[in-house]
Design a protein that fits this description.
With 237 residues, this protein is an alpha/beta fold. The protein has eight helices and 13 strands. The chain has a single domain, classed as Alpha-Beta Complex (Spore Coat Polysaccharide Biosynthesis Protein SpsA, Chain A), CATH 3.90.550. It is globular and about 45 Å long.
Length: 237
């Protein structure tokens, strides 16, 4: 199984709020966010880790190249592209993900490590086309609501709450068949991951929701302390 990290955003909101480091290098729980994900992925049996960073922050590129050069854990593949959206970044990584099941997330996604391990194990044991991390903790400025039946089979994705319990956590475990949908979305000029998720349902792929207790994104300077507190609470459980 492969893992992938989208770390190609500009991080403009953090820099405007006084954070000098590029987002992937901001430390949460004592680790740069990109290092944290690489470590967690290795602990969950990664065969390969694919990462995309942008050209605007050479410091991030150099850091990931250093990670790759250490030769610890799974091999790291690095793409350096400046893309207009996360879906475009996913598309740039997709040729490397076409031959094995994979898990994809953005670099600033903060979750409990024990829950992530159970999520990956559930994906390995599930016969669905995809397992999507969801949460009933709404922290996103523009959450994507997830419609699911009583068996947690996903039936749709909504920009507004239509009686939905969960929102997307931005953690996607998929089989390569999903990449055909990604290519269709790109050909149609789509540019948002939520449109890709909707297209998966439209194309008849069987998606299962997997609830996390909480998933945080680090978009603002204040989110760093919030993420630190969340991880500290997790360690004390």
């Amino acid at each position: 199984m492969k893992f992938a990290i989208i770390a190609a955003g500009e991080g403009s909101r953090l820099s405007q709020e006084g954070i000098a480091l590029p987002k992937p290098l901001v430390r949460i729980g004592g680790e740069p966010m990109v290092d944290r994900l690489v470590r967690i992925f290795n602990e969950n049996g990664a065969e390969e880790i694919c990462i995309i960073v942008n050209r605007l922050h050479p410091q991030t590129e150099a850091h990931v190249r250093q990670l790759a050069a250490r030769g610890e854990g799974a091999p790291i593949r690095l793409a350096v592209r400046t893309t207009p959206s996360s879906m475009h970044s996913f598309y740039e990584l997709s040729p490397w993900l076409a031959d094995a099941p994979f898990c994809l997330t953005t670099v600033d996604t903060i979750f409990r490590e024990d829950e992530f391990a159970r999520f990956i194990e559930a994906f390995r044991q599930n016969d669905a086309d995809g397992l999507m991390g969801v949460t009933d903790y709404v922290d996103d400025e523009k959450p994507l609501y997830v419609a699911a039946d009583s068996a947690l089979r996903i039936t749709g994705f909504h920009d507004q709450n239509e009686g939905d319990r969960y929102v997307s956590g931005g953690i996607y475990a998929l089989h390569p068949a999903a990449l055909a949908t990604l290519r269709r979305c790109m050909a149609q000029g789509q540019s948002r991951m939520r449109n890709f998720q909707r297209a998966l349902v439209q194309d008849g792929l069987r998606l299962q929701a997997w609830p996390f207790s909480k998933v945080l994104d680090v978009d603002h300077a204040g989110d760093i302390a919030k993420a630190e507190q969340f991880l500290n609470e997790t360690e004390s459980v």
